[in-house]
Amino acid sequence: MIDLHCHILPGIDDGAASVDDAVDMGRQAEQDGIEVVCATPHIRHDHDVRIAELGRRVAELNRELDRRGIAVRIAQGGELSETTATELDPDELRSISLDRSGRWALLEPAPGPIGDSLGATVRQLRGRGYRAVIAHPERHAGADLRERLAALVRDGALIQVTAAHLEEGATAPALAELAQIGLVHLVGSDSHSTRAGRPVRLSGALEALASVPHVAPHLDWIAREAHAAILRGEDVEPPFGVS
Known about the structure:
By secondary structure, the chain is an alpha/beta fold. It has helices spanning 19-31, 54-67, 90-96, 116-127, 145-154, 163-167, 172-180, 203-209, 219-231; strands at 2-6, 36-39, 42-43, 73-76, 79-81, 104-108, 131-134, 158-162, 186-188. Strands 3-5-6-7-8-9 form a six-stranded parallel β-sheet, sandwiched between helices. A three-stranded parallel β-sheet has the order 1-2-4. It is globular.
């Protein structure tokens, strides 16, 4: 499995607080069967993430995981804020694309319910040659969430929900309903630490999706095929439609 949304780089945003914390996150991933974790620090105004340093930081963490015998690869990326997306130059945008593929960007909606501006940002990114993975829409739900997500999919976006929220909790039934109408394409851990909050874990969410008839026949695509193609920079089209 591949986790495309994880704040595993230590000491860079509100994610892993130390190298040991990051290593423990890698160990969690390995125990869950995750082979690749895309490091996606926040690229937004309230975090001083220096994009030019990401390659070095990812290489350092990969060396440390290898030294400690943890068979997980860290890929480079970023969680790009909707409010920052238009400010990056071409080199910066490529550096925070998922595995530096130059094709897919993990896009964080602005605070509050999803509005027209997110669709405009998705289209602006597409004009620059990028497609968007929409992060944690369950945190940006308004009365018209389904219609908003369907419009984003028509603009070429894929929808990623947070694995822990799909696995259990108050939002799980609503996310299962979104999956049933074809509006869940990917799951990501959005883990920030082993010390508190969500673990680096995807398997529980995939088990939950196995009980959703619309997507159950496509679990391998959701768990592996789509993520791997995104990291390769390929175009990805869901094998199920929006109903």
